[in-house]
Amino acid sequence: MDESVPVTRQAKEAFEKEEYQTSYLLYSEQADACPQDLVVRRNRCVVLLKLKRYEEAKQEIENVLTNLRQNGEKTSRESAAKTYVLNAACLLAMGQVLDAIKVLRSSLRETVQSPGEDVHQMHFPALCCAVGKLGRDWMGAYYADRITEAEKPATHSSRDGRALKMVPSSMRIQKDQLRRLVSMTLKGRLAEGRSFLLQSWGLQRRLGRHVLAMFRAYAYLQAGLHDQALKDANMALAYSPGDGHWARGHAVLGAALAANLEWQRSALHYRHAMELEPGFEEFESCAQESAEKLSMEEQRVLRTGGTKSYSKWLEEEKERNLPEFLKKRPKYYYYYEWMKKRIAEFYPVLPDPVLDKLLDLDADELDMLLQYPEAIQGQVTEFLDVYETKGAEFLATYRTPQLSWDEVKALQNKAALGIEGEEQLDVSLLEHLPEDTNHALLGAGGRGELTEAERSGLPVRPQLPPDAARDRMALEGSLQDRLKLLEHRAFDSSSTPPSSGADMDAMD
Questions:
Q1: Which residues are paired to 89 by β-bridges?
Q2: What is the pLDDT of residues 58-83, one digit of tens each?
């Protein structure tokens, strides 16, 4: 209590000794001597409350409020807040809980400039006491009314609600029924419901969208409208504070999922609620009930690894059950698998570095090599020699030597002269073959007739445009030269011993 003169000090000492009657007489003496001393009169009001003389205390504090209004701007915010709080205490003592809450909320609006200051903090004891006296039915009606207001059409769009999405008219619960269902939801959860009110009123904010969505989800669950309850539960968790770390949000979503028989996700969210608020009996019992619907393996993962391990297990299980064309695969996965099978037809077992080096080749080059056994044999032999002599790291950066001009000329001469023992081709015969270009290409000058192959009904390879045809011929020419070199090296390696490490160094 405040002190101003020695008489008030004596009154304060008597109050501390619980001699309330003596304290009252001393404060009354000082109040009669100084009627404008509002501090003394507030202290006398406190003593009257201790003496349970509530009507006199109420009259005293109303007189103080009258003087405060007359003083206007001269009154400090702290003095005004103390007077309002005492007024609310008198109303609470007389059983007028709602009037006391109204006074406290008004005082918060008038006296508090920023949350956390001393004037703000002095309201909380009285506000907690007032909220603690609210009944379940009143709170159910209050929350239901706030939900109804949040469902009203928004100003910018009549299809959306102000804070909650509108429920289709065919599924919407009437106001009286909604009040009853929300009141049933608060059964066993009164302390939690009061905490939402205390936070909203104490911070002078509207009830959060997540709180309203949570209560509506529970109400629709009890009404048997599980689809709407699931929508609201997802909304409650999505708008919850703390980036989804709200135990009640996970619990209501777990309940909605269980009602829709989605036991895996239900057990996951109930377990998350348990981890956020360990020891909460409601969450533990519901989590156990949902977990019993899972397989033994899932129960083991959830029990030993918690929500993180079980979430990972669910993602892997979902991936395993997807059709092949929907599974997440690395880039070029199917190309590599196809080439591995083709390589395995020639070399079932190869060191991983050699196999990786083959797959790293140009796609057209590797495809051409696999069409000729001698070519792939020469390439694999070359990579194996490098791998065995230089190691895997050197092989990863190794580049096959390009054909020299002399090697190209030698291969061309060998191809023109033919291999000893084989039938020679008479090149002069090619000059007498008729030119088969009746079927014109783009912009060509043919007669527009069918070719000999088309007349005979033979399969005809589609012809490319001139530019693409030239590019294709250039590519095939370089690949053919490469194949000839590899065949030549494979032939030489079969008749001569492998090159030494010194030769490999010279090649590089």
A1: none
A2: 998 988 888 888 776 566 888 888 88
